[in-house]
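Box 3.1 A note on notation
Throughout this textbook, protein chains are presented in two layers. The first layer is the amino acid sequence; the second is a token string describing backbone geometry. Keep the layers aligned when reading.
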Amino acid sequence: MLRLLALAAVALVALATGSAGPAAPRGGTPLAFVTAETLNQLLAVNLPSGRIVRRFRMPADPENIETSGQAAIVVSPRAGAVTLLSIVPLRVVKVLRGFGSPHIALIPPFSTGELAYVTDDARGQLVVIQLNRRRIIARVFVGRGAHHMTASPDGTRLWVALGERAERIAVVDLKRPARPRLVGYLDPHGLAHDVSFSPTGNVVWGTYDDRSRVGIFSARTGKLLRTLPAGSPPQHVAFDQTSAARYAYVTSGNDGSLQVFAFRTGKLVRTYRTPYGSFNLAIFGGVLLIPSLYRGTLTELTDTGRIVLSKRIAPAARDAAVAVLP
């Protein structure tokens, strides 16, 4: 359902520095992009005011969004479409069709904004999109139900959970980023939901759809190393992908909670209350951005727990990402 979004490099500031709030990065203004699936719209929201500054019409059922410094991608499963947007100027540039049911998009930092990966769960494919040419350049079968995914910080591996209740996780070789290669499968020891590489790349955190636990796996062997207590499933996990990163963030939309763990030790540091249905999480500049699928709210929370923004912006706010406009 959700996953951590790759953010504009200029917006990345370590959460561990204790940033005081959502001050705009030097030279730019942050906008939140939020998918309002029941409206078939993508909303561009000013931060921190919460004012909607643009509405983009999307193909039916826009669910998840990913951004980079130059581009944004919105997947619409019911329409079988992927919408490409440019950040500057802010506009829709192309709608790619012909997917079975695209679900998750990823623009990894190591691709320098040139490539995006999209999972197509109906066809079990990992689809590679060349962003500057606005075209699909590869489709690789990884397994039916291909859904949540995560890439290693060094760009050599990608893990794909095969379904929202996944009995297997596919491991993909990315040494040739434009030509991914399936290398095997691993057992998540439960019905896996979300996966996320830690900033060190040594371990992968995985959440479940059938238990209130989070699993920590060896990135090298795929072995389950330990589990930690978590909120009600399904949970989602994200990291601040910076050199000073210290924490793992685990959401439970059904509990309305956000748990903060020290990712190196697994120690629970704190728990925040969030609006019911807050599954997704984006991280930027010392701020956590949390949309609520069930309440339609957008919440901005500092790493110290201070609420900067909490505003209803749509009937349902499924996913969110951030881009910085000059």
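The chain has a mean pLDDT of 89. The chain has no helices and 28 strands.
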